[in-house]
Design brief:
By secondary structure, the chain is α/β, with parallel strands linked by helices. The protein has helices at residues 21-33, 74-84, 100-124, 135-157, 167-181, 191-200, 204-207; strands at 13-16, 38-41, 63-66, 69-72, 91-92, 165-166. This is GST N-terminal domain-containing protein.
Length: 216
């Protein structure tokens, strides 16, 4: 899967980091939907200047700039990418998950991604891993991974079989592979999640968006 040629007059700019799982969600969607984009790196995640996040007042990434408009957050960006896709794709969005199992899987996948960010930012701030304030998010992350590992196969089985891509599966893939990339914990014990990532990782969109640390 090759990225379409860039047209400076129409090409949106994705603001994020190659090491970010939330950013990778949008990059996978862009590849799956064949939407070209320019990429701009946020240099320092410790910055408290909204200008470094393309004006996002939450001081978070990713952001998609389309002309004078900015779209904040992975899900919002993925929806805009779908609107820009040259051909219609069968996308399973969170609102399509109307049973408890799949809806809870989506919620926990995103919550786990956010919890990991909390732990990473604590590391950057020099907070010891055994700090009492980190006990709850650390246990929360483990609990969520266990639940997702126990339920990922059943949840995927309930997704439409004719889908091209689902937001749930992209989030799950980006979460689990990011935990390994950042060495937050060993995920090999989560066998169902590991098997899923091995399968999903064969997609061209996954292979084209591997994690790496951007040069300073």
């Amino acid at each position: 899967m090759t990225q379409p040629a860039l047209d400076p007059s129409r090409t949106p700019t994705l603001v994020g980091r190659s090491s970010s799982h939330f950013t990778r969600v949008t990059r996978i969607f862009a590849a799956e939907l064949e939407v070209a984009y320019a990429f701009e790196v946020v240099p320092d995640l410790r910055s408290v200047n909204a200008a470094d996040y393309a004006g996002n007042p939450a001081l978070r990434l990713p952001i998609l700039r389309t002309g004078t408009t900015a779209w904040f957050g992975s899900l919002t960006i993925c929806r805009e990418l779908a609107r820009r896709a040259p051909a219609q794709r069968r996308v399973v969005w969170p609102e399509h998950l109307t049973d408890a199992l799949t809806a809870n899987a989506q919620e926990l996948a995103v919550q786990a991604m956010s919890t990991e960010v909390t732990l990473i930012m604590s590391q950057l701030a020099g907070t010891p891993k055994d700090d009492a304030q980190l006990a709850k998010p650390q246990q929360s992350l483990l609990n969520m991974l266990t639940w997702l590992d126990d339920n990922v196969q059943a949840a995927r089985a309930r997704l439409p079989q004719d889908r091209d891509v689902s937001y749930l599966e992209v989030c799950l893939f980006c979460l689990v592979t990011h935990l390994e990339f950042r060495k937050m914990l060993d995920t090999t014990g989560y066998r169902a999640l590991t098997a899923f990532c091995q399968e999903f990782g064969q997609r061209a969109s996954a292979q084209a968006t591997t994690y790496r640390f951007d040069a300073p």
